[in-house]
Amino acid sequence: MRIRQHVNPLKANFFQIAVEPPELPAGVPIEVELGSAEAHFLMTRAAEDPARFYVGVEIRRDHVALANATCERQGLKQVHSVFANMSVDLPRLFPAGRVSRFFLNFPDPWWKARQQKRRVMSPELVVEIFDLLTVGGEIYVASDVFQIALDAMAVLEHDCSRRFVNLREPWTFLRESPFAARSRRERQCEMMGIPIWRLGYRKL
């Protein structure tokens, strides 16, 4: 089965997805990966810290089906992927103040300037993420394209006086990931020696 690698999130049909919110276990910290693909990162996170619940939000339905089938086969009941558009569906998926961490791992295939309107990280998304995070909750972004990482940093730094604080210093990238888990693209970059630009912020 051929699974498409990229889709246009601005297409009209992606704004009308019949979203099925995940069943979140009470009292358990929730971690969410936006654009989770096959959920390799979340599966590794579950092995790293099995006391949490992990949700992947993915706009490609085939990837969601594949990820959930793999998790069921491996007995990873604390990992679940949902078919949704992160640009519009997050408030329907999670209650306010419920998520402990958000991850955006290599979120944008649209790196050219003319495709900037399709960029994932926007001021509107940051506001939604802020509302859904617990107090002290965190957001992590990783990209192998410097301009995309810098644009994401600009959006987050703009909100630092009101919403977030950089986990290192203002306008500073993380030296390394604080997590052992890696997405497929992240592993490829590390094997090929491609630099990865990492950001980490905490909700004020």
Structure description:
The radius of gyration is 16 Å and the shape is globular. It has one domain: 3-Layer(aba) Sandwich (Rossmann fold), CATH 3.40.50. A seven-stranded mixed sheet has the order 3-2-1-4-5-7-6, with helices on both faces. The protein contains six helices and seven strands. The chain has 204 residues and is of the alpha/beta class. Strand 2 (53-58), helix 2 and strand 3 (79-83) form a beta-alpha-beta unit.
Kindly provide the radius of gyration, computed on alpha-carbon positions and rounded to a whole number of angstroms: 16 Å
Q: Could you name the CATH topology?
A: Rossmann fold
Helicity range: 25-40%
**What's the total number of strands?**
7
Structural class: alpha/beta
User: Which CATH architecture?
Assistant: 3-Layer(aba) Sandwich
Q: What is the count of structural domains?
A: 1
Which runs of at least 5 residues are low in confidence (pLDDT < 50)? 1-6, 8-16
For CATH, the homologous superfamily is named as Vaccinia Virus protein VP39
Q: So what's the CATH class?
A: Alpha Beta
Q: Number of helix segments?
A: 6
Strand order of the largest sheet: 3-2-1-4-5-7-6
Give the H and E element order.
EHEHEHEHEHEHE
